[in-house]
Amino acid sequence: MKKLALLLAALGVMSATTFAAESALRITNVGQEVEIENESGGSDIGESVYFGTSVGLAYKDWTFGVIGAKRWNVDTDDIDSVTGRVVLDAWKHFDNYKLGFRLRSEKDYDRYYARGAWNHGMFWGSADLWYEAKSGKDVKGNDKNDTWRGEIFPIGVQYNGIKLGWFVDAEIVSGSVADGYREQNFEHQLRLYAPLYKGEKLTLTTQIRHTLTVNDKFNKENVSKESRYEDFGRTRVYLESDYKVNEALNVYLKYGYEFREKEYVKDRKSDENKNYYGDLIFGWNYKF
């Protein structure tokens, strides 16, 4: 937690210095969010219960974001603290694209992101690429490996509020990997975003994520106890609502449900454990 406190203090000094020098750094929005994630065989309420507070700032053609959060594992008879989180974002905006950097720090890892997004007419794309420096040991007592990760939309199309994108989730593990562990993974998805209803105050939208292919590599598959998603093996559907309380304040509620089909790496038999996933998100945002 000392590391997280130092990061927040550094951001505060930077913000105060910029504001004093230019009198142009301004707060654009504040908000809070709760996310409850659960899957079959897990905790009764949520294996991951997240509560975060976010602040957005802007300076000329730069935007910044700060998130402070806490995460718990919550069961009906027990609450376990899992980790704290600090996220620092910076974006430089251009005409049809933007470039950014993110630092995300938790108890067991630090992530260093390079980010980008572009939008031109009917076409769009984005990429979050990061290096994850891990600490501690895994369940088998091995030192955790650092990883290179990427969440990439190489290209998407959009029309009249509907967006369709090709999504790639990529992971490459750094260094030697213990027997039975995954060395790399590439998952390809189609993601669809579409409006359902738009009223004076209430807006309803949907998001659908469908896995196409999963290409992974394990060190010695014959000893692995892990399982993988099958090709076309999972679909997640979100229903999202946003209510405009007034010109500045909005509240939102989202729920996602994921259908899964997984197989064990070693023998390709079906894995019936944790075959569903639920994601509940709600919060508020106030714009200045």
Explain how this protein is built.
The protein has 288 residues and is mostly beta strands. Helices cover 7% and strands 69% of the residues. The protein has one helix at 2-22; strands spanning 26-39, 46-59, 62-75, 78-93, 97-106, 109-120, 123-134, 147-159, 162-173, 182-198, 202-218, 227-244, 249-264, 270-271, 276-287. The protein has a 14-stranded antiparallel β-barrel with strand order 1-2-3-4-5-6-7-8-9-10-11-12-13-15.
Please supply descriptive tags for the structure shown above.
288 residues, mainly beta, 14-stranded antiparallel barrel, 7% helix, 69% strand, globular
Shape: globular
- Helix count, per DSSP? 1
> Can you tell me the residue ranges where pLDDT is under 50 for at least 5 consecutive residues?
17-21
- DSSP helix fraction: under 10%
**Cα distance spanning the termini:** 30 Å
Following the backbone from N to C, one meets helices and strands in this order, namely HEEEEEEEEEEEEEEE
| Average residue-wise pLDDT | 91
Sum this structure up briefly:
With 288 residues, the chain is mainly beta. Helices cover 7% and strands 69% of the residues.
List the helices and strands and how they pair.
Layout lengths: L1 H21 L3 E14 L6 E14 L2 E14 L2 E16 L3 E10 L2 E12 L2 E12 L12 E13 L2 E12 L8 E17 L3 E17 L8 E18 L4 E16 L5 E2 L4 E12 L1
Antiparallel strand pairs: 1-2, 1-15, 2-3, 3-4, 4-5, 5-6, 6-7, 7-8, 8-9, 9-10, 10-11, 11-12, 12-13, 13-14, 13-15
